[in-house]
Specification:
Rossmann fold, globular, binds hypoxanthine, 5-stranded mixed beta barrel, about 25% strand
Length: about 270
Amino acid sequence: MMREKINTAADFVRTKIDFVPEKAVILGTGLNSVAEMIENPVIIPYEDIPEMPISTAPSHEGKLIAGFLKNTPIIILQGRLHYYEGYSMQEITFPIRMLKNLGIKEIIITNAAGSLNKDLQPGEIVLLHDHINFMGTNPLIGENDPTLGERFPSMNEPYDFDLIKEAELIARKNNFTVKKGVYLAVTGPSFETKAECLMFAKFGADLVGMSTVPEVIVAAHAKMKVLGISVVTNLSNIFHQKEHSQEEVRANAKQAKDNLVCLLENMLSKK
Ligand code: HPA
């Protein structure tokens, strides 16, 4: 039973920390150093957590980092699971359900994404205001456990508008730019063709990536507030012929890091 596995994992984490976490962050590709924000962290490798699926992607170290950021008890998940690694939709969204069980009400989900919109350039930070699920599946398929959420959860506002406003305010106060966009999720691991990118742009998507949407659906199911943040790491195939490498993706993620750290610190700290 999913519910028992979630309880087992969360119970284990509870034995390692002596506080109830309020907010959580999931870090995307190349954004690992953001975890350095936490002072005196408790670090739990995913493989120590019973029932936790384990990540294999390069640059995705699987760790749960718990601690305080300016008096706010938080958890950072460093190293998410991707569908293209071969995990099931239920497995890649397991950490979200564990976080809910631990008491998390608000979650910031970050990712690296390719741009389908010329106004969103590599190195820019984009707040997600909506998404398109183009993965051809859904993490909520199967029997619904009503203790986890309702059968047909609304997707009216999966990205919390108040959190978006708050993030925009923080960026303005700190003199950096954030933009807004719609994220479209593909399964990967192959990158999109030019024809696919053109189609996605016509659909109304601004960004394309291989994560986030399953987690956001499960968070919405669990009635958690979500802030989705993409770091644009490359232009998609619409704009250039050149192939983009994992190295390019990582270098551009680094560039956005300082602004992202500022945004996260302010979003997470108590007001
Ligand atoms: N496509 C899909 N996923 C990605 C991309 C991209 O261009 N960049 C970073 N993740």
